[in-house]
């Protein structure tokens, strides 16, 4: 079967499909024929050799996949061949993958192709769970995979003032189309003033930040009294500076959060809730779709900051 084995770290050009052995499902696993792969930013970092968990070469890269069950392990009773499923596979950039049966999501009949790839939505939901009773939310990288779900889920969960920050003008427009009440670009010279004004100069109850560095530092000073900032990525690759006195006086909380800490039960519940919202037309799960042979181009669309929403490969 074809799969990507990372033989060297580097740019998108190091991603090459090779012939390798098809996996066999263990007793608790299912074998899935892959029909689509969702590219998360973690794949970029692994490929660059920068991911927080080290992947020694030659490396198989984990990925979220959608596909059809080909075979089930001896102990798997609740799933059967032919069912459409999605989940995260340890060797995800592959024509066939194995996943533990308890970690797959069963796609309901009628859900269009690639719509089950919702790991970025699960992350967004987990991040929003880090605070209770928020009215105002600031979301950075708001047109990214995670960010585009965060904007919509914040709205669906009752957020009143959803403020989006994104790179270029198209992304700002996109974030508004997803339900942001205010959106601007951090390339605007006056973005700090725009954001402060959008919060009525009181700050936001919740800030979801994937950028860190100077952007994160500026936003940390915009947490409302009693509010929370969740750092969930560090796209700037730079540290934030936090003023302890300001945090103390405003009783602010700055926390990190990773979807890896969410329980399997919560993930199943949130995944099914999102699928229901997609079917009801309340949640958009748009994707730029590339054939698997154009894997380098798909990665370039992410790294050039041109992509909006999810980026997906089809097989
Ligand atoms: N904690 C968790 O559980 C978790 C889970 C998944 C992902 N993440 C993190 O969340 C972030 C977004 O992930 P994703 O999968 O949603 O990513 P994605 O869809 O590939 O989008 C990444 C976004 O980051 C922004 N960005 C800012 N600086 C950038 C740079 N120098 N190069 C490229 N993009 C840059 C871009 O938006 P703008 O141009 O609009 O700024 C881009 O759209 C990443 O930092 C990722 O590591 C965390």
From TrEMBL:
Residues 10-313 form the Enoyl reductase (ER) domain. Transmembrane segments: none annotated. It holds the Pfam family ADH_zinc_N. Coiled coil: none annotated. Keywords: NADP, Oxidoreductase. The keyword Transcription regulation does not apply. InterPro entries: ADH-like_C, ADH-like_N, ER, GroES-like_sf, NAD(P)-bd_dom_sf. This is Zinc-binding alcohol dehydrogenase family protein. It comes from Chitinophaga defluvii. The lineage of its organism: Bacteria, Pseudomonadati, Bacteroidota, Chitinophagia, Chitinophagales.
């Amino acid at each position: 079967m074809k799969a990507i084995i990372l033989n060297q770290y580097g740019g998108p050009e190091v991603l090459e499909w090779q012939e390798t052995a098809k996996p066999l499902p263990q007793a608790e696993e299912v074998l899935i024929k892959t029909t689509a792969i969702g590219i998360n930013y973690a794949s970029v970092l692994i490929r660059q050799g920068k991911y927080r968990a080290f992947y020694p070469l030659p490396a198989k890269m984990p990925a979220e996949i959608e596909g059809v069950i080909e075979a089930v392990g001896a102990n798997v009773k609740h799933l059967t061949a032919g069912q459409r499923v999605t989940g995260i596979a340890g060797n995800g950039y592959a024509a066939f993958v194995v996943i533990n049966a308890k970690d797959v999501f069963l796609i309901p009949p009628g859900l269009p192709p690639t719509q089950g790839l919702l790991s970025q939505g699960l992350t967004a939901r987990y991040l929003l769970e880090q605070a209770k009773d928020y009215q105002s939310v600031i979301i950075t990288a708001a047109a990214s995979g995670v960010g585009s779900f965060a904007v919509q889920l914040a709205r669906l969960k009752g957020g009143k003032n959803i403020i989006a920050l994104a790179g270029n003008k198209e992304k700002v427009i996109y974030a508004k189309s997803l339900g942001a009440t205010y959106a601007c670009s951090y390339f605007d010279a006056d973005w700090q003033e725009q954001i402060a004004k959008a919060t009525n100069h009181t700050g936001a109850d919740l800030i979801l930040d994937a950028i860190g560095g100077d952007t994160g530092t500026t936003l940390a000073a915009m947490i409302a009294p009693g509010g929370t900032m969740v750092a969930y990525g560090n796209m700037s690759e730079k540290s934030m500076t936090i003023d302890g006195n300001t945090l103390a006086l405003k009783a602010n909380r700055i926390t990190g959060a990773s979807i890896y800490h969410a329980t399997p039960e919560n993930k199943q519940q949130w995944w099914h809730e999102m699928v229901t919202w997609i079917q009801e037309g309340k949640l958009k799960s748009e994707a730029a779709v590339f054939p698997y042979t154009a894997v380098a181009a798909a990665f370039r669309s992410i790294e050039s900051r041109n992509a909006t929403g999810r980026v997906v490969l089809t097989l």
